[in-house]
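quick one
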Amino acid sequence: MPVNIAYETKIEHISILDEHGNFDASMGEGLIPNDDLVAMYKHMMTCRHLDEIAFKLQRSGRMGTYPENRGQEVPSLAAAYVLEKKDWLVTCYRENAGLFWRGLPMEKVLLHWMGDERGNHIDECNVTPLAIAIGSQMLHATGLAWSSKYKKDGAIACTFFGDGATSEGDFHEAANFAANLDLPVVFVCQNNGWAISTPTKLECSAPTVAQRGIAYGMDCVQVDGNDMFAMVKVVRDAVKNARENNRPTFIEALTYRLGDHTTADDASRYRNVEELEMWEKRDPMIRLRKYLEKLGLWSQEQEDEHLKVAAQTVSEVVKRAEGIDAPSATEFFDSMYTDMPKQLKLQRQTMRTSSLGQDPSQIPVQIPATEGTVQ
Ligand SMILES: Cc1ncc(C[n+]2csc(CCOP(=O)(O)OP(=O)(O)O)c2C)c(N)n1
Ligand SMILES: [Mg+2]
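structure w/ thiamine diphosphate:
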């Protein structure tokens, strides 16, 4: 019997504006209006300033652990730029630029990292709270898309996760459901080469992470994740595919975190200086700035001017985050369920909060007569 090919495929890599300033006009021309490009660059400047200040807040004991976003601003910003208001952006923890573009107040992210549940109360826009349990958010995105399809409201869900997260079961379950049920989901993997100190090649033997999506029958593409033009193009294509055909797409965005994994990490212990220097040259802001300058859309004066605006914005954000009244000690119980299970009700009522000097109304302990004994 002849040997036939049962299946053949390819993964395209999309790049429009590369690190050397080469611009592929055949794909990039007219993709993003100049005014929008300038607005995006300014937004990235503000986000990067917030990142720097957040790092300092942690170092000076004013905030808990923080994961720097520096270097990874483009993928989520491109997605937020393309998505409509009714759509969902379902992120992990390195997508500040996209979340803020959609309208999440910056102080909510600071509150989150200060351990304040109110940072996770989001009424302003269709984004979900930061997901720290790796991979969990992809399932939420699939669920949101399933509910949109059921309700026929036309919304799609765009979810973000890292290369490491594609080795979690949650990714495979979310991808399988999304593809089999024809759900409008855009899966964006930010492949930054590392899952904390584990290099991607140690947890993914395939040459691209994108091909993991092929197993589920999704369209898959790899893109330069530091290239705003290429990112906007692939997200736009994927959103169209989701909106018009109810089909999920897997996008592998190649990028790099220029900082440590979080403030609890020291990346110099596992990655070498040459690698970092190579990626510093690929910084998404450098190439966008050069492109804007070449077109006469940006100058050093504008840079200096906007830096002042960014500093002022961030300083007000920090004031708001630090100025909020202390949360009650039971706040985190109240955010979890619409109808709190009785075990949690009991825990809430029996919390010994007097040592914190908070919520003295909880003392003495009150066990609800109607709830009976908790098993
Ligand atoms: C379920 C789960 N397992 C382990 C961790 C600890 N952890 C935090 S970040 C991380 C690595 C994630 O790597 P990746 O998905 O590539 O995201 P990146 O931080 O590189 O953006 C791990 C293992 C966690 N938060 N959740
Ligand atoms: Mg990673």
